[in-house]
Amino acid sequence: MGDFNNYGGTDEENSEIARLTSDVEADTDNFENWEKLIRACESLDGGLNRNSSPQALATLRNSYDRFLLKFPLLFGYWKKYADLEFNIAGPESAEIVYERGCASITNSVDLWTEYCSFKMETTHIPHLVRELFERAATHIGLDFLSHPFWDKYLEYETRQEAHDKIFDILKRVIHIPMHQYARYYERFRQLAHTRPLEELVSAEELVRYRAEVEGEAVHLGLQKTELEVERDIRGKIDQFFYLTFQNTQTETTKRWTYEAEIKRPYFHVTELDHSQLANWRKYLDFEEAEGDYNRIVVLYERCMVTCALYDEMWFRYARWMAGQEGKGEEVRNIYLRAATLFVPISRPGIRLQFAYFEEVNDRVDRARAIHEAVLDILPDSVETIVSWANLERRQAGLDAAIEVLRAQIASPTVSIYTKAACVTEWATLLWKVKGSVDEARAAFSKDADAYADSRHFWQQWFDFELQQPTNSEMETKHLELVKRVFTQMCTKSRLSLGIKQELGRIYMNYLQHRGGKEAMKDFLDVDRQMFGPRSVSLADKAKDGKENGVVPELDPTSRLKAEGRFYNYYELHADPDENAQGLADFN
Fold first, then answer.
1. SS3 sequence, 491-511?
2. Which of 7, 154, 206, 472 is the most buried (most CB within 10 A)?
3. Is the distance from CB of 84 to CB of 91 less than 8 angstroms?
C-alpha cells in the first residue's frame, strides 16, 4: 500500500487513504486513526461489493487485517468484517473471518452467537451446525451472560424439531449460574413432564427412585398401578431438579453483586474506573475461594478482555495459573498473550517475568530472545539490560554478564545515562560476584568524567564506598575514599542542588556516625555548601558557572534522564487502593 494508484479508488480517495495510512503507521496505538482508515476503506467505490475492483478489496482486507491484529478483542469489527466478506466473496470467506475472530477472542458470547447464527443460515448439514454450537459452549457456555447463545442453540434445535436435544440442552443449562437462569428451569420443567423417565435421570437413579416409591407403598399397605408409580417417580425427580434450581439460584445470587457492578464488559482502549478494577479483583477473589477451576478460568478470561491493557491483571492470572498443578503450558499462553498482544512494551515487566518463566523451564534461548526483543524497541531500558546481564551470569558466568553490559555501553543507540547505569552494574558484579573491590573501584573511577551527570552513577559509587568493611585503623583511609566520591560529585556533575543535597545528607550522616576528630569540620563545610544562603552555597557557584559559560546547564529533557531513578518492576508492586476514585491509569 505504498502509492496512490494501488488503493482502488479515485485520486481523492487514494490520497486520503494514503494520508490515513501514514497517520496509523506514525502512531499505531491511536484507535481513532484506525477507525478513520477503516471507514475510508469501506467507502471506496461508493461502498464495496463483489463487483468492486481487486485493488479496493485488497485495500479493505489489508486494513482490517492490520487493525484486528493490533486490536483483536473488538468483536464488533470481526462481525463487520465477516459481513463484508459474505457480501463480497460468499459464506466460505465469511466463515474464515469468524474462525479467526473466535480464535482471537475465544470468550466472546456475542461473536460466537453471531457465528452460530450465520452457520444456521448458511449450512444445511445439522451435525456441522451442532459441532459449532458445542465448540462455542466449551468457550462461553459458563459465562454469566451466555443466555443469548443458549437461546440461539435452543432456537436451532426447535427449528429441527429435535425435542430430545432441546431437553438435553436445558438439562445442562439449569445447572449454570447465569443472568436468566429461572426461565430455563421453567421451560425444562414443562418439557420434563412430556419426556420419558429414561431421559430424565440415569438408569441407576431411576432404579433407586422406583425402589423408593414401591417401598413407601408397601410401608403404607398400598397397591399402586404402574401409572401411579410413574407419577410418584416423576414427583421425586421433579423435587430433585427443584433442588438443582435452588442451588443454581443460590450460586447466581452470590455472583449478582459483582456482575451488577461491571459497567464495561467489553474491550476498549480507554481506561477503566478504579471502582471497576476493584470489582474485578473482588470477583476473582470470590471465584477463587469457591474453587471451581473451570469457572475461575472463565471469569479470568472475561476479565482479561475488559482489563487487557492492565498488566496487573495479567500478572495476577499468570500467578494464579502457576499455582495450579500441571498448568505450565497455560501459564506460557497467558504470558504470550500479554507480551505479544496487549501490554505495551513500554511496560516491560510482564515480558521479563515471562523470560524468568522460560528460564525456569530450561528455555534459556527464549529467555534471551525476550530480553533482546525488548531492547530492540527500548534500548534504554536499564531494567532489561541488568536483567539480561544477570540471566547470563546465572547461566554462563560473570564474563558473559559483563559482555552484555559492554555491548550496551558500546552501542550508539544507548544514551549516556543508560551507559552510566551499565557501568555501575559492571562495577557491582566485579565487587559482589568476583569479589574484587579494587577492580570495582577502578571501574567507577575510570568513567567518572564521562558519566558525571548521572545521579544513578554517583549514588551507586557512593553506596559502594559506604558499604566497604572497615576498622579503627582503616577508618581514615575509608573517609578519604568516601569524601573523594562526594567531592567529585559536587564539582563535576551538573545535577540539581536538590539531588546534591540528598547525597549530602547521606555524607553528613556518615561523618557524624563514623568520622574522626576532624570530621565535624567537613560536616559544617558540607552543611554550608548544601544548605547555606546562595552567597556561600553551591547554588551560587553553580549560578556563576552557568552565567560565565563554564558549566552549561542541562536541558529539561536531559535533566529528567540524568536524575531519574531505576527500578525493577517487582519493586513497584503495591497493594491497590480499593478506595481510589476516577480513571485508573494503565501505568
1. HHCCCCHHHHHHHHHHHHHHH
2. 7
3. no
Distance CA 40, CA 34 (A): 10
Place of cell 401411579: 228
Kindly give, in sequence order, each residue whose CB lies less than 8 Å from that of residue 553, ignoring residues fewer than 6 positions away.
Answer: 494, 546
**Cell representation of residue 213:** 416409591
Tell me the CB-side half-sphere exposure of residue 116, using CA atoms within 13 A: 26
Higher pLDDT, 205 or 382: 382
| 3-state SS string for 390-427 | HHHHHHHCHHHHHHHHHHHHHCCCCCHHHHHHHHHHHH
Cβ proximity of 528 and 537 under 8 Å? yes
Question: Which set of grid coordinates corresponds to residue 575?
Answer: 497493594
| Spatial CA neighbour of 461 closest among 436, 480, 443 | 443
Using an 8 Å Cβ cutoff, are 564 and 417 in contact? yes
Dihedral (C-alpha) 127, 80, 339, 581: value to the nearest 10 degrees? -120
Q: Which residue has the cell 426461565?
A: 183
Q: pLDDT tier at 12 (50, 70, 90 boundaries)?
A: confident
Helices (H), 291-363: 293-306, 311-322, 328-337, 349-360
Q: What pLDDT sits at residue 551?
A: 57
Count Cβ atoms below 10 Å from residue 477 Cβ, excluding itself. Answer: 11
pTM (two decimals): 0.88
Q: Binning pLDDT at 50, 70 and 90, where does residue 1 land?
A: very low
d(CA 206, CA 197): 8
Each residue of 479-510: pLDDT tens digit?
A: 999 999 999 999 899 999 999 999 999 999 99
Calculated CA dihedral for residues 474, 479, 485, 491, nearest 10 degrees: -150
Selection from 109, 168, 103 nearest residue 142 by Cα: 109
CB 50, CB 88: distance < 8 Å? yes
Beta-carbon contacts of residue 571 (< 8 Å; ≥ 6 apart): none
Residue 252 pLDDT greater than 80, yes or no: yes
**Please, is 80 exposed, middle or buried when counting C-beta atoms within 10 Å of its C-beta (0-12, 13-18, 19+)?**
middle
At residue 557, does pLDDT exceed 60?
A: yes
